[in-house]
Amino acid sequence: MIEPKRVLRALAEHWTLLEPLCERFDAGTLSLIELRHQLAAQLPQGTPTDITALLDQWIRLDILVPVAKSPNRFELNAQIHDFLAYLRREHRLGLCLEIEAYLRHLERLAGHIQDAFEIRDGQDLARQLRLLDMRVRDVLKKLDNDEQALVAVAERAKTSDRQIPLRQRYAEVLATWDEYVEPMISPMSRPDLASEYPLVLTNAKFTTYIHSQLRGLPSLRKAAPHPTADIHPDTAAHYGVTDKEWMIIESPRGSIRAKARVTDAIAAGIVCCQHGWWQECKDLDLPGYDSYGEGSANPSLLIGADIADPISGSLPHRSFLCRVKPAE
Question: From first to last of its 328 residues, what are the pLDDT tens digits of the chain?
Fold first, then answer.
C-alpha cells in the first residue's frame, strides 16, 4: 500500500537518482545487479551498504516492485511510473523529449537484438523483438497524440470571436512554445545531412523590392541588378567563392545560382539567399530567371514543401542545410 506523503518525500529527495532510472524502466525491467550498477555509477562516493539501504527503502515504499515469477527483477510501481512520466513529459514542437527517449530505447533494443542474434539465443531474441514492436507502437501512438494536440491548440487559437484578445487566443500556442526548439533541418538535428551539406541556409527579404515584384523597373534594378547571397569571408575562402562572382548553392532538394556578396555582417557557416527573382529588366538588358528550371535563382527549390510547421504551415526558409561552390 502506497503511503503518499512518504513516497512523495522520497521522490523529491531521490529525484536525481530516480529520473535516469525512469528511462531504463521505460525499456523494461531491471535486475538487482543492474540497479546496483546504475546507482553505483550515480553515487561514486556511496558504499554497497548505502546502495542496499536505498533499494530497501524504495522496495518498502512500493516504489520498486518485484516482477512476478522473477523476484530478482524489479519494475517501477505502475502508478508511480505514470506519475514520473507525467513530470518528465515536456511537450514541444518537433520531437518531444519523451519521444527522444523512446528513440534512444529503440537504438538500445536494436543492439540487444543484434547481441541475441549473434549468440543464437532464440528466447531472448523473441523477447527483444516483442519489446521493439511495443516500443515502435508507443512512438507511433505518441506522434499521433502530439499531432492531434497541436492541431487542437491551433484550432482553438483560430476562434472567430473578436471579443477574445489576440494574445489570449494564442496564449496556449505561446505556452506550447515555451522553450527553444531546434529546427527540424539543422546541423544539430540532422548531422547525417550536415556531413554533406555543412552550411546553414537562411533567407531574407531585400528592401529594394517588394517580394517578387518591381525587378523590371530600371531605377530599382540598377541598385540590385542580380540575385545575391550573403556569405562570410572565411566561409567564402574555404569554398573558393569570390565576392561578386556567381556561385552554386546546393541542398538535398536542388540547386540555384546567385552572386556572392562576401560580408562579415553575417556569421561564418551561414548562407543568406534572397527570394523573388524571376523578372527581366528589358531597359537594362538584364535577364529574368526560370523559377523552376536550370539556372534558377529561386531559393524555394532548395527547401521543398514536404516539411512544414504543424500550426502555421510555414516552410523552413529560415533554417535549412546547403553547400556552395563557384559557378563554372
Answer: 556 667 777 777 887 888 788 877 877 788 888 888 888 888 888 898 998 998 988 888 888 888 877 778 888 887 777 777 766 554 333 445 555 666 666 777 788 888 888 888 888 888 878 877 777 776 676 666 666 666 666 666 666 666 666 666 666 665 655 555 677 888 888 888 888 999 999 998 878 888 888 888 999 989 889 999 999 999 999 999 999 999 999 999 899 999 999 999 999 999 999 888 888 999 999 988 888 888 888 888 898 887 877 667 788 888 899 999 999 8
CA 138-140-142 angle, 5° bins = 65
Which cell numbers in the block locate residue 111? 543492439
Cα separation, 288 vs 299, in Å, equals: 15
Give CA separation, 251 vs 275, 301, 319, 320, 321, in Å. Answer: 16, 9, 12, 8, 6
Closest CA to 85 of 74, 97, 93: 97
